[in-house]
Structure formats: structure tokens, C-alpha cells
User: Which sequence fits this backbone?
């Protein structure tokens, strides 16, 4: 018979509503995702305070926080450490750590206390193949309606690529805004993919009078959207 300790909680999936929780953080209490309605939010976990890979990640995320904010995205961190550990670690980062030109870095986004691992288990952040007591480096993209749009998991030993997290955020927002898809390695200003036409004949009809659209075959058509147009639509100034 399953007990609360052994009960298996299904991992959330893309398209699911983000699991709800209330938590204590370094920036006060939060009610997730309700407090972030109307904004994108990146909820991410790290294995432990006072560890080097996590330190490099938090410095990078804190340095890029303004860039994410311009894209209407807020940041929320989590580990299974306690609040006082979080506070002491973040103070140490600001006062003592200099890395890749980053120094005096103040982490202003909330860092969740999750000693009971309740939140980490709801989001599948505890992966027994890595550790039963530390959260892996999970990343959840939650849209303004509280829906999970993407998830990325990294092992304990692998630091995240934050430029890629930003690229993924902007790509999803661009896809929503223009009803398109983005190809491999897409960056703002690159051509985007338009929905499949359904047949060669339909593709040709769609191309008539639309010199910008290029169809390689019925299933693969692209069109340009300028970087300026993307950023004007996505970014808040």
C-alpha cells in the first residue's frame, strides 16, 4: 500500500496547467502560478546552495533578469535548502564571488524554500537516477495563462545555457504572436516556418502575390519576419 512518502506523483507535461503551490521564498510568500498571471515565468530548480555550478547559474540568471523582464518573463528559483541557507548563499554571492566579469551580483528574484521537497516532487525535479535528496536542474516555461509550454532537464553536473533559455522564450512568444513555427537554431530576424499548406497546389496558390514566401515543397514553406518586427512585438519598452 502506498504511503504519502512513497506515492508516485505524475510529472507535469507540456500543455498541462502548472501544478499549484504556496511557498516561502527569499522575496516573501508566493502563490504559484496565480501570482504570475499575465506574465511568462521560468520556474527552475538547482541541486543545492553553496555549490559552484549553481553559483555560476544564479549569477548569470540574475545578470540577465532585466533582459527576461523586457520579454514579460519573471524568474523563480527553487532548491530543497532552507530559507536561511538561501539568504546566506545569496549574500555570499553578492559580497565575495566574481566570475566572468560578474561581481556584486544581487539576486532579486525569489528563491523557494522546499525542505519537504513538496514542490520539487510535484514538478518531477527529484530524479532518483541522479539523487533522492537533490533537485536536478529542471526548467519550466509557464505562459501567462498558467500553462506549461516547455520543460528542460539537465543532470546535476551540467550547467545550463541561459542564452538558449532566452532564445526558447522569445521563439515561443513569436510563434504565438505570428501563428508560425521556428526552425532549428532560429534567432529573431531569421525566416520562420508557416503552417503546412496541405498540397503543392495550395502552396502555389498561397505563394501567388506573396513574393516573400518561399516553398521548398508543400510541407516546407518559410517567410521572413524582421528582427525589428519580432522585438517590437515581444519586448516591453
Assistant:
Amino acid at each position: 500500500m502506498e504511503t504519502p512518502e512513497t506515492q508516485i506523483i505524475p510529472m507535469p507535461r507540456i500543455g498541462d496547467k502548472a501544478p499549484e503551490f504556496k511557498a516561502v521564498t527569499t522575496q516573501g510568500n508566493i502563490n504559484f502560478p496565480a501570482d504570475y498571471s499575465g506574465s511568462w515565468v521560468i520556474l527552475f530548480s538547482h541541486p543545492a546552495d553553496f555549490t559552484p555550478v549553481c553559483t555560476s547559474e544564479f549569477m548569470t540568471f540574475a545578470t540577465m533578469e532585466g533582459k527576461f523582464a523586457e520579454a514579460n518573463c519573471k524568474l523563480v528559483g527553487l532548491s530543497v535548502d532552507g530559507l536561511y541557507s538561501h539568504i546566506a548563499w545569496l549574500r555570499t554571492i553578492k559580497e565575495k564571488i566574481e566570475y566572468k566579469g560578474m561581481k556584486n551580483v544581487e539576486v532579486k528574484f525569489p528563491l523557494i524554500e522546499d525542505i519537504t521537497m513538496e514542490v520539487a516532487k510535484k514538478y518531477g525535479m527529484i530524479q532518483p537516477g541522479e539523487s533522492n535528496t537533490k533537485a536536478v536542474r529542471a526548467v519550466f516555461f509557464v505562459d501567462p495563462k498558467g500553462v506549461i509550454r516547455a520543460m528542460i532537464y539537465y543532470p546535476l553536473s551540467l550547467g545550463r545555457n541561459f542564452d538558449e533559455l532566452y532564445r526558447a522564450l522569445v521563439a515561443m512568444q513569436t510563434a504565438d504572436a505570428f501563428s508560425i513555427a521556428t526552425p532549428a537554431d532560429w534567432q529573431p530576424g531569421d525566416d520562420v516556418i508557416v503552417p503546412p499548406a496541405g498540397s503543392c497546389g495550395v502552396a502555389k496558390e498561397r505563394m501567388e502575390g506573396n513574393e516573400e514566401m518561399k516553398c521548398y515543397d508543400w510541407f516546407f514553406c518559410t517567410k521572413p519576419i524582421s528582427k525589428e518586427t519580432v522585438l517590437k512585438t515581444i519586448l516591453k519598452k
